[in-house]
Specification:
13% of the residues lie in helices and 45% in strands. The protein has nine helices and 42 strands. The strands form eleven sheets. Strands 3-42-41-40 form a four-stranded antiparallel beta sheet, with no helix packed on it. Strands 4-5-6-7 form a four-stranded antiparallel beta sheet, with no helix packed on it. A four-stranded antiparallel beta sheet has the order 8-9-10-11, with no helix packed on it. Helix 2 crosses helix 4 and helix 5 packs across helix 9. The radius of gyration is 26 Å and the shape is globular. 46% of the residues are buried.
């Protein structure tokens, strides 16, 4: 985990290493996995790290965590050089992200496009030799770790960012939303003027309009698929449209899907092959892409009342829907590609959410009836109830930890509850987190060892898991008004809160397990959002005062203000591209600006 010292070391680390050096022959003293004991009389002098060959130092470093590798590197010039000549430091830094997040970071990195890779680094360095040396490593399995570590280091060395308007996208009426594609190369905007626009960034950095999607009423939202090749728009004209990008980069309409009446949502599957919709017509529908690129309806899921939500499991093999008819339905895909109902979960009131565990073998519901229910899949494919979590008021949400062994629930009874799975597969209550007023949210850290809650009682609370499995309070973060949200960074080393008191607070985890305040971000009005960038190196806040602020790590491990963006209206949220240097904030006017972040000369 990061510590105060480690932050400083990241920012001040030397140029990243070249291609991994050969470890050479196996050192003497070890043969075929058997230790060889050297008699004391044969030892001529005390052996220190300075006497060890570079390949041995690297082997030792590969067994250590990031913070320990940094400490080892500081021992001497000899250890520094050994570690510098191998990507062991970068790999250890990257390992602190969950395996799922590593996969997502790798997927959005445009490895095959050298010019795009250059455009991700050049805003934060003028060292062309460094940029080219990093790109030369594209074929190595550690490239993602090397690239993201380099970018994080370069951004931390920038004391402040330039914020320049790169392009203005015009609509004839108010802009509703804006979203970047996963690889940051495209931006889609939606508007009250009944259109959505797809803009693409060219190799020379300019943005051009690639497609204009027309509807017969307001376009409420638009989302890219995970691979960035498909786009779905949802309109008040009771239709959604799917567009796909061809091999030449053009966007073409592939389907217009009617719903009567309003569509509540449309979401692509993680593998980008399917789309699920939820509608007030009491139906959810699954669409799949055909071999010819068209999209066809695969399944209609019927409820007795409006469908509230629909979501895929991480492996895209299951879909869960919830409805105001007080039921949730789980459908699974068979080996022939067809879908069949696996389970219907009933509650005494409507269900606020249904969430899959990371492996897709469990679901947890949260209901207005004051309960959450966990169901698990058996080896024969059937599903059965595993436990019921009871509260004294409605359960607003329920989430699994990344490994699926813990669940946290949030209720209007002023509590959040953590349940854990025992060795026999049953569930037991591990901890109740009490607040003085309603709890608004609760989130696990990526490693599942911490939970943070946000409450209307003006506090956020961090709880941590002890070695024997119990949970204890680690920190209470105080604000002057309701805490709207509290979220961990992707590596779990930091968290940020957002409050109605006009402030966001960044806390960091120290090596002794305690949490310490690192920065207070102040605005002149209530916060709307406070989020981390995908690599965890930046925090972006959006306020009702019409500004967005960007904070990043400084050279001494502190978090400092890097840039302020002033809007011409109240922004609801701020979107940062995955490459970390483009920013947009829809603010209900008919023009949207794409801002570019870069280092100051």
């Amino acid at each position: 985990m990061y510590s105060d010292v480690i932050h400083s070391d990241i920012a001040g680390s030397p140029s990243l290493p070249p291609v991994s050096t050969s470890l050479g022959e196996e050192p003497s003293g070890v043969s075929a996995g058997r230790s060889v004991t050297v008699p004391d009389k044969e030892i001529k002098k005390t052996i220190s790290l300075h006497d060890l060959p570079e390949e041995i130092i690297v082997k030792i470093a590969r067994l250590l965590e990031f913070r320990d590798i940094v400490s080892l590197q500081q021992v001497s010039t000899h250890t520094y050089t050994a570690i510098k000549n191998d990507p062991v430091l970068e790999k250890a830094w990257y390992r602190r992200f969950s395996s799922l997040h590593q996969y997502q970071l790798k997927k959005i990195l445009p490895v095959e496009d050298k010019e795009q890779l250059r455009s991700w680094l050049r805003p934060f360095t003028k060292d062309e030799a460094l940029v080219e040396s990093i790109i030369e490593h594209r074929s190595y399995d550690y490239f993602s770790a090397l690239f993201y570590f380099t970018k994080a280091r370069l951004m931390s060395q920038c004391k402040t960012f330039n914020v320049d308007t790169e392009v203005i996208i015009y609509h004839s009426h108010c802009v509703n939303s804006a979203a970047f594609s996963p690889d940051s190369s495209h931006l889609v905007t939606t508007s009250v003027d009944e259109t959505a626009k797809i803009c693409c960034q060219k190799a020379n950095g300019t943005w051009v309009e690639q497609a204009k999607i027309s509807h017969d009423n307001f376009v409420d939202s638009a989302n890219f698929s995970a691979d960035g090749h498909h786009l779905v728009t949802v309109s008040w004209d009771y239709t959604l449209k799917i567009h796909s990008q061809d091999d030449h980069g053009s966007w073409n309409e592939k389907a217009t899907i009617p719903h009567d009446p309003w569509i509540n949502l449309a979401t692509f599957s993680p593998d980008s092959r399917y789309l699920v919709t939820a509608s007030k017509d009491n139906k959810a529908k699954i669409y799949g892409q055909e071999a010819d690129g068209s999209w066809k309806e695969k399944l209609t899921i019927s409820h007795n009342r409006s469908v509230i939500s629909a979501a895929f499991s991480a492996d895209s093999r299951h879909v869960a829907t919830t409805s105001y008819d007080r039921s949730a339905k789980i459908y699974g895909q068979k080996t022939d590609g067809s879908w069949e109902e696996k389970l219907t979960i009933f509650h005494g009131h409507w269900i606020n959410s249904v969430i899959f565990s990371g492996d897709g073998r469990r679901v947890v519901t949260a209901s207005e009836d004051g309960t959450a229910k966990i169901y698990g899949q058996r080896t024969d494919g059937s599903w059965e109830e595993e436990t019921i979590i009871s509260h004294d008021h409605r359960v607003k949400s329920a989430l699994f930890s990344a490994d699926g062994h813990h669940v946290v629930t949030v209720s209007d009874d002023h509590t959040a509850k953590i349940y854990g799975q025992k060795s026999d597969g049953s569930w037991e209550e591990k901890c109740t987190i009490n607040h003085g007023r309603r709890v608004l949210s609760a989130n696990f850290s990526p490693d599942g060892y911490h939970v943070v809650t946000a409450s209307k009682d003006h506090t956020a609370k961090i709880y941590g898991q002890k070695s024997h499995g119990s949970w204890e309070e680690k920190c209470t973060i105080n604000h002057g008004c309701s805490v709207l949200s509290a979220n961990f960074s992707p590596d779990g080393c930091h968290l940020v809160t957002a409050s109605k008191d006009g402030t966001a607070k960044i806390y960091s985890l120290k090596t002794d397990g305690s949490w310490v305040e690192k920065a207070i971000i102040s605005h002149e009005a209530s916060l709307k959002t406070a989020t981390f960038s995908v690599d965890g190196c930046l925090v972006i806040t959006t306020s009702m005062d019409g500004t967005a602020k960007i904070y990043g790590q400084g050279a001494n491990g502190s978090w400092i203000e890097k840039a302020v963006v002033v809007h011409r209206g109240m922004a609801e949220s701020t979107a940062l591209s995955a490459n970390g240097h483009h920013l947009v904030s829809p603010f209900r006017l008919n023009a949207l600006r794409i801002y570019k972040l870069s280092m100051k000369n």
